[in-house]
Amino acid sequence: MVASNFLLPILALCLTMRLQGTISADPLSHICSPTSTNYTTHPPLDHALSSLLRTLSAKTAITGFATASSPDRKYHGLGLCRADVTRYDCKVCMEDATAEIRHLCPNKEEAIVWFDYCLVHYSNKSFFGKIDEKNKIYMWNTLNVSAPHLFNRYLGELMYQFSSQASLSLSFFATGEIQLSEVGDKTTIYGLAQCSYDLSSGDCKACLDEVIGELPTRCSGKQGGRVLTGSCNIRYEVYPFYRT
Which stretch is the leader sequence (predicted)? Predict the structure, then answer.
């Protein structure tokens, strides 16, 4: 996989899985870099970051994805909305995310925040077109399935199918479902996979394959799970959660 130049340490948080998000919801999670800039003594940097986040919010709300750099190129940012949400929901999510990231990570040189409908990532180093191998969050439902081995096998089949579909689609996005016919309760797994558009098709698949491969150890036998990174994300549930 492509090496990352990010300064952030790998952070894997084990969180209780949230129910389907709504606009203006709380962020799912965030990561702040350990290094800070005193904007009181460097007001141009504060202005540059504020300008970048405003531009990023406006551009992403229109297209669902955007990258941007501040006029002085001191900061670089990426915004991504889930491909199945409306333009309005994308706009609201980006407004919330660009405001919340300054609140959650004040004076930080790099930060990323995930909401259910969008993510925002900025850095004082350019990261476009590179797989984010360091910013990673794991989440899962606390409830267990009745037949974990069978469930995990079907889940793997579904998610690896998404990896191929998403990486070859124009939207870098895939959703679908699969029914566990051998299970008495006829459980259906619903899944989603998405990559950021700055990746190549090959890097999109590599990113998804890596996080899907972590599901058996991170979310084994759980009724729902999610892996969030700065470059790709996956989610599965035993109930519908995406829009068709």
Answer: 1-25
